Amino acid sequence: MDKIHSQKKWSSGVILVGLMLVLLTIAGCTEANQTEPIPIPETHPAYDFIQIAKRGPSTLAVCESHGGKEIYPIDYEILEHIAQGIFILREKSTDKKYLGVSFGEGKVLVTVKTCCWETDT
After folding, report:
1. Which ranges of the chain does DSSP label H, i.e. alpha helix?
2. Which of 88, 97, 101, 90 is nearest to 48 (CA)?
3. Residue 101: pLDDT band by 50, 70, 90 thresholds?
4. Dist CA 67 CA 49 (whole Å)
5. In this predicted model, what pLDDT tens digit does every residue of 43-89 receive, in sequence order?
6. How confident is the model at residue 120 (pLDDT cuts 50, 70, 90)?
7. Of 55, 46, 48, which Cα lies nearest the Cα of 114?
8. Taking Cα atoms as reference points, which of 96, 99, 24 lies closest to residue 67?
9. Would you kindly state where each structural domain of the chain is located, as residue ranges?
10. Closest-CA residue to 121 (of 99, 102, 93, 91)
């Protein structure tokens, strides 16, 4: 009898944890989907890429098709955070400035990458 009682406790605990994870996921998704204005001109190629990246994981090919290129953050210094996931970078070796956008790549294991566009400002 104790074995059956402990199995019921264990399974109800698993259900409770599962329900909490589902609720946290839903809460995180609704917060992420709130519309925050993008502080760059709609004519900039990064604008369309940001719209795609906000919907979920993207790919390096999508970054490049919008005129961007992947960078490795160790070679750059962040000068300014413009908005969530959008920032101005300076390449340490050349002093060139870039507009950087963070995005997730992958379906099961998502890795964070940075797509950037050279800028004059």
Report:
1. 2-32, 45-55, 60-65
2. 101
3. very high
4. 9
5. 999 999 999 888 888 888 999 999 999 998 888 999 999 999 999 99
6. confident
7. 46
8. 99
9. 1-34, 37-119
10. 99
